[in-house]
Design goal:
alpha/beta, three-stranded parallel beta sheet
Length: about 100
Amino acid sequence: MSSTRIRNANILLVTLKALGNEIAKNLVLAGIGTLTVVDDGVVREEDLGGQFLVTEENLNQSVCSHLLTDLTAEPPVTNAVCHRESRQPHHKSAN
């Protein structure tokens, strides 16, 4: 019963810093149905120590696209969706 619920679950993560990276990995390994990530960041030098799937070769690449590609390369199969929109709130002008 619980494995069916995991396979049918849809999870949203906002940003993939060190903690989000670990959460994403564990969800994929558990066989989560769909993992959607919103992150507009790129791999920076300070990310190299805290994110296990990034290397110097990934500097200035999209964090979201790179990590989801690597995380979903091996079974169990997880649908992965990457949204690279800004995480900053949008403010409308008062004009």
